[in-house]
Structure formats: structure tokens, C-alpha cells
């Protein structure tokens, strides 16, 4: 264990101590999550189409918030998104 790891592990509480979920980016879990994403997106046209849809939704939200000029977004606009 390096000095930096020793210091940070002593200072930073573990996720379990905070009552928060722990993000585990181990190889097998990450691979399984990615494979689940890929297989789930196949019925919707594949991962490329899924990513394009997310990009479009991002742009729609950007436009909606730009149009309201920093004010609260109208409920009807939010529901339409």
C-alpha cells in the first residue's frame, strides 16, 4: 500500500459506512452490465440507435432549458420531454 493510499483510506469513510451503495467496476461486473445494455438495446435497433436517442433527448432538454431562460421549466414542457 502506498503512502497516498494509506492516508486516503484512513481519512475517507468507506461507502458502507456512509450508507451509500458501492460502485464496483470490476471486470466481470462491468462486462455483465455492458452485455446487458447491449442485449437490451437490440430490440430497440441496437446500441447505436440507443445512443442516438439519448443524444436527441439531451438536445431536447438543452433547448427546453434555454427557452425558459433559467426560470422554472413549465410542467407541460417537462412532461412532453
Description:
The structure is a single chain. The protein has 81 residues and is mostly helical. The protein has a domain at 49-81. It has 5 helices and no strands.
In whole angstroms, the N-to-C terminal distance is 49 Å
Largest sheet geometry: none
**How helix-rich are the residues, as a percent range?**
55-70%
**Strand tally:** 0
Supply Rg.
20 Å
| Shape call | flat
Helix-and-strand structural type = mainly alpha
Mean of residue pLDDT values: 77
Task: Report strand %.
Answer: under 5%
Keywords:
single chain, 81 residues, mainly alpha, 5 helices, 69% helix, 0% strand, flat
Task: Quickly describe the structure.
By secondary structure, the chain is an all-alpha fold. The chain has helices at 3-11, 15-18, 27-42, 47-67, 75-80. 69% of the residues lie in helices and 0% in strands.
List the helices and strands and how they pair.
Blueprint: H1 3-11, H2 15-18, H3 27-42, H4 47-67, H5 75-80
